[in-house]
Amino acid sequence: MADVEETLKRIQSQKGVQGVIIVNSEGIPIKTTLDNTSTVQYAGLIQQLVLMARSTVRELDPQNDLTFLRVRSKKNEIMIYLT
Amino acid sequence: MFPDSHSSLCLFSFLLQLSNIPYVTHRLPVLSVCSHPLFFLFSLTLHWDPDPSTLQLHSDSELMGRGAVRLGMSKLTQVDFLPKEMVSYSKETQTPTDALSQSDQKAGRQALFLSFFLLNSGLFTAVYTPKELTEEEKLQVLHSEEFLTFFERGSRIVERVLAEQVDVCFDYSGRDLEDKEGDLQAGAKLVLNRRFEDERWTKNRVVTCLDWSPQYPELLVASYNNNEDAPHEPDGVALVWNLKYKKPTPEYIFHCQSEVMSAGFAKFHPNLVVGGTYSGQIVLWDNRSNKRTPVQRTPLSAAAHTHPVYCVNVVGSQNAHNLISISTDGKMCSWSLDMLSQPQDSLELVFKQSKAVAVTSMAFPLGDVNNFVVGSEDGSVYTACRHGSKAGITEVFEGHHGPVTGLSCHSAVGPVDFSHLFISSSFDWTVKLWSTRSTRPLYSFEDSCDYVYDAMWSPTHPALFACVDLSGRLDVWNLNNDTEVPTASVGVDGGAALNRVRWSHTGREIAIGDSEGHVHIYDVGEVR
């Protein structure tokens, strides 16, 4: 548990990182370093995006599955790691 | 067989996918992830039994008593759903890991607020109200094995991705930059890398000089004057800082009895640090010895200097080099580094046979060991030469209205020779660009609103130079871009007056010394 905290702190303190959110498979945030409103907003929006992306990957190849999703915009980048 | 009719929905599970196995049995609804997650399911259980006997119709069954019926169901399974029950939709994939599906099902049993409306057109809308987990539930998840495995892998991969700094979207045509803010477009970015200070040795002292080591690009020597609050500490301190490691303390600590006004690494002797002091002594420290005090000192006599020495420099080549020092009474001495007990040569810098030049700064053009330029307190810049019949001051360049604080000769090597150019900074708020061929300034940079304390050309880029002023501002000018305003400008934290500026030999870092004993290192970004 302490390792988790330490790793989170290390990632959060890296240059350019705005926040880290950990979400369970239903999209409920478990741990977050952002404020509540942003977390809920991000969790909801990302959940939908992940569903779409995942279904795309699986439709193209049913044996395949989505593992990592990077959304790059003009101003910043969202990285989503999935199991 | 039918139960009493009640208002429950009879949901019959319907097999959506025909499988190859001969027995098709009733299964729980398998929701595959596709765009219509919920159907209104009609299910029919078909139990195929190869035994022909069971294909007979059960006319005497309890079914309906309708008599001979052509087709009959041999087995009917009924799944009831209460009308108002919330449908729990588990959004897992078809092949979840065992562990995950377990926890999901557990969580799924909690009433999720997902309601679907099936419209005629076949579309659906999902109303998603976020649900919170209690603290214990969150902790439970955080301690679970699956979470730890997931987190360990995930954090490792995310850290790798974060460490990659590659910008794949960079557009070399420059069209991208038009949208960005002004300072990015200007090209040179100044980012604070580090700050060096030491509680015992630099507090309450002013940084008087900076020099980068020619051998090791990460070493920097900074000299300091006295600390008025600590009369028992040595008056003059020179510290060697290391940029490569994160250690916040200096590599070497040297001190001496008088304030060090100028310092530098001896060019062809990697172990020696030269310092010019307020008393007129030149001191030499050696990092091979274990002493923090100088290993060699010049005498305090009329043959050497008796006034503060503001400029020390080692010029020449590997086999024939000298230490040149000039004090504020205009005396220039040249020394051999092996023997500091008496100067090899000395020269009085006087202008027009009477006026001694109070030298505050000195610079040698690239590759020249004989001719040099000096700046003085009366606001004029003089060229002089060391040897020859006309040894001494040659010409005067007038233009500044205040004492000249810094001088720098153009040093970037390139196809065009700019070695005749030099810049001077002064108390009159300007930095002036001169050529040795003309006594009038070529240009005057008048952007600053305060005393400009130092200026230096970039050793690698022929159009860049940096200057620092009293208000705590570092300006980097790019003469290819703009001559009216600096290309990049940054205010140093703390607002202390900046005393010295030095580009590193790679041209990628700038070291600044301020009046509070701090040495700031700035990284210079890409200059386009």
Task: Please give a structural write-up.
The complex is a heterodimer of chains A (83) and B (528). Chain A has 83 residues and is α+β, with helices and mostly antiparallel strands. Chain A has one domain (2-81): 2-Layer Sandwich (Beta-Lactamase), CATH 3.30.450. In chain A, 43% of the residues lie in helices and 20% in strands. Chain A is built from two helices and four strands. In chain A, 7% of the residues are buried. The mean pLDDT of chain A is 89. With 528 residues, chain B is mainly β. In chain B, strand 26 and strand 27 (438-445) form a beta hairpin. The longest helix of chain B is centred in the first third of the chain and has 19 residues, at 145-163. Chain B starts with 8 loop residues before the first strand and ends with a strand. Classes of the chains: A alpha+beta (83), B mainly beta (528). Chains A and B meet through helix 1, helix 2 and strand 3 of A and helix 1, helix 2 and helix 3 of B.
Provide a quick synopsis of the model:
The complex is a heterodimer of chains A (83) and B (528). Chain A is built from 2 helices and 4 strands.
What is the number of E strands of chain A? 4
Quickly give the CATH architecture of chain A.
2-Layer Sandwich
Approximate strand percentage of chain B: 25-35%
Q: Major sheet of chain B: size, sense and barrel closure?
A: 4 strands, antiparallel
Biggest interface, CB < 8 A: A-B, 34 and 37 residues
The name CATH uses for the topology of chain A is Beta-Lactamase
- In CATH, the homologous superfamily of chain A goes by the name Dynein light chain 2a, cytoplasmic
Query: Low-confidence runs of chain A (pLDDT<50, min 5 residues)?
Result: none
Beta-strand residue percentage of chain A: 15-25%
**Uncertain runs of chain B:** 1-45, 54-65, 98-127, 181-187
What multimeric state do the chains show? heterodimer
| Structural class by secondary-structure content of chain A | alpha+beta
Task: Walk across the major sheet of chain B and give the strand order.
Answer: 5-34-33-32
Structural class by SSE content of chain B: mainly beta
- Number of domain units of chain A: 1
Spatial gap, N to C terminus of chain B: 85 Å
Q: Tally the helices of chain B: what do you get? A: 4
What is the overall number of helices of chain A?
A: 2
Biggest β-sheet strands, sense, barrel of chain A: 2 strands, antiparallel
